Amino acid sequence: QVQLVESGGGLVQAGGSLRLSCAASGFNYAMAWFRQASGQEREFVATITWNGGHTYYADSVKGRFTISRDNAKNSVYLQMNSLKPEDTAVYYCAGGSSPGRRAPEYNYWGQGTQVTVSS
């Protein structure tokens, strides 16, 4: 059974940075970050292949966010810089067999961590 636990969310001012972490048990998967703002659908943020060789980003975060992973620590990270109020959402870590952009492609999900960016 794969379990994913996110951490690192919080309140930050616009222009600031946060680093999210996701600890995983059972880690031979492509990993991704999604987010869901209040009243909106869950949206893709970034994904990384199982060996870290390829990464893909949503246009809205490209150049500001960086996804990475450390397989020795069974962890995936999301470094978020130049944060904007519109980045406010619950951020979810997900694991799946391939680095897709759609939520149904992922079988395993964490509980989420809240990120709030104040203006």
Spell out the blueprint of helices and strands:
Elements: E1 3-7, E2 10-13, E3 18-25, E4 30-36, E5 43-48, E6 55-57, E7 65-70, E8 75-80, E9 89-96, E10 106-109, E11 113-118
Parallel strand pairs: 2-11
Antiparallel strand pairs: 1-3, 3-8, 4-5, 4-9, 5-6, 7-8, 9-10, 9-11
Distance between the termini: 40 Å
Q: What characterizes the major β-sheet?
A: 7 strands, mixed
Fraction of residues in helices?
under 10%
* Mean pLDDT figure: 95
By secondary-structure content and strand pairing, the structural class works out as mainly beta
What fraction of the residues are assigned to beta strands by DSSP?
A: over 45%
Spell the H/E element sequence: EEEEEEEEEEE
Low-confidence stretches: none
Count of helical regions: 0
Tell me the total number of β-strands: 11
Radius of gyration: 13 Å
| Form type | globular
What does this entry look like structurally?
Helix content is 0%, strand content 53%. It contains no helices and eleven strands. The strands form two sheets. Strands 2, 4, 5, 6, 9, 10 and 11 form a seven-stranded mixed sheet that branches. The protein has a four-stranded antiparallel sheet with strand order 1-3-8-7, with no helix packed on it. The chain is globular, with a radius of gyration of 13 Å.
